[in-house]
Amino acid sequence: AEQQGAFGWIERLRINNFVHGDLEALVAAPHLHALNALALVLTRSDSQYRESATSHGNRSWTSLGSLPTLPRLRELTFLGLSVDEGGLEALFAAVPEQLRVLDLDHTCFSNFSATRMAALPILPHLRALTLRMNWDESLLAWGNWPGLSVVERLSLHGVDPPELAPLLASPYWGALRDLDVSCGVLGGTNLEQFLASPPIGLLRSLRMYAIDAESVPALIACRALDRLERLTLDTQFELTAEACQALRDYFGERLLMMGDI
Fold it and tell me: Which residues in 29-55 are b (16+ Cβ under 10 Å) and which e?
């Protein structure tokens, strides 16, 4: 009991190589009184281990509701796990209303429908959301969740450029101010549709992986970006020296290109 009580000071907990049963053990732990950030991470890549970790996923999400420290959680992270509609509904039924950060990066979604996404409860204090595409159309279903209306910071990872505009066409992005897009090179029609998305004009910070040199004039001409305080490009490999200079001339100190000194 004395050793268990020593865990009472822990505020942030990360469990790597998470498998079914770990969450139940966590629920049974009586001394995590100070916990406010929980991360469950599947870091091993062998297929047998992954199958064992995800085959009972829905039961794990349901048991989350019994976690004694749940009402105090402000950050919740699931990395590398598998969630279907039933699992996501169980997860949302369990998480506290005051949750501020929900990170579902590297989490595989499957069998989602727009109707069931629209029925998920709103988390009124949620401010930061991270999602990943995973080679299916489930990410697009998130555009039907009314809870997006309170999200201020959105990170989209592994997204195909053609899928950006349909997701950002959601009517619920009114609070969005910070967008981080990790996808392929944005250019041509994909960039034009992305820049025409309604929330772009709301942004104060935009981070993109890369654009091609031919698309620099369109980026500069986009008046929706005039409110930006920071534009970040993760790589310059698709840009010519002339294109880089044109971006620097227009955006000035608001521009950060990785590789700049």
Answer: eebbeebbbbbbbbeeeeeeebeebbe
Q: Are 53 and 42 in contact (CB under 8 A)?
A: yes
Nearest CA among 224, 227, 222 for reference residue 205:
227
AA identity, residue 158:
G
How many Å apart are CA 32 and CA 66, to the nearest integer? 13
pLDDT at 136: 52
pLDDT in tens, 219-230: 999 999 999 999
Residues 6+ apart with CB under 8 A from 98: 71, 74, 125
Give pLDDT < 50 ranges for the chain. Answer: 1-3, 47-49, 52-58, 135, 261
Q: What is the pLDDT of residue 79?
A: 82
C-beta of residue 129 within 8 angstroms of C-beta of residue 102: yes
Number of other CB atoms surrounding residue 239 within 10 Å: 20
Helix (H, G, I), strand (E, B) or coil at 123: coil
C-alpha–C-alpha distance, residues 37 and 96, integer Å? 12
The pLDDT value recorded for residue 109 is 65
- Per-residue pLDDT at 40: 83
Contact 103, 130 (CB under 8 A): yes
Task: Write the CB contacts of 6 (distance below 8 Å, at least 6 apart in sequence).
Answer: 31
The answer to whether the beta carbons of residues 16 and 44 sit under 8 Å apart is no
What is the C-alpha separation between 85 and 111, in angstroms, rounded? 6
What are the pLDDT digits (tens) for 67-90? 776 777 899 888 877 766 667 777
Amino acid in position 210: A
* Residue 31 structure tokens: 């001394």
User: What's the chain's length in residues?
Assistant: 261
